[in-house]
Task: inverse folding
């Protein structure tokens, strides 16, 4: 009797370890274009990309490529695009509003994609 309880407890813990390992596997790495110009843009873009569930965000000034690692269980890719657009930077999937774009410092006023 006591053994079957012990086995159940052991299986429970083992099961939760497996569930935990699966969580880690939900990390996805992807890259997409974010429009911007300078170092200030880089800081702004990376900060905006860092929503809940994002593990790393790195924007390359010369290629305009943002590389993000995010947990697909916590955040959708679309949410990351929208957060960046809300900070004033157009992405492949989300466009900044004209009023937010207008508030960017002069050096950050990138050429907007059509
Ligand atoms: Cu800038």
Result:
């Amino acid at each position: 009797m006591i053994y079957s309880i012990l086995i159940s407890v052991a299986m429970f813990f083992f099961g939760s370890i497996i569930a935990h390992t699966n969580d880690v596997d939900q990390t996805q790495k992807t890259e997409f274009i974010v429009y911007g110009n300078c170092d200030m843009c880089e800081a702004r873009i990376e900060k905006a990309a860092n929503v809940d569930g994002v593990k790393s965000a790195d924007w390359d000034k010369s290629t305009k490529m943002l590389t993000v690692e995010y947990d697909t269980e916590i955040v959708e890719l679309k949410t990351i695009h929208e957060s960046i657009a809300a900070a004033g930077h157009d992405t492949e999937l989300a466009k900044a509003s004209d009023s937010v774009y207008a508030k960017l410092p002069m050096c950050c006023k990138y050429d907007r994609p059509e």
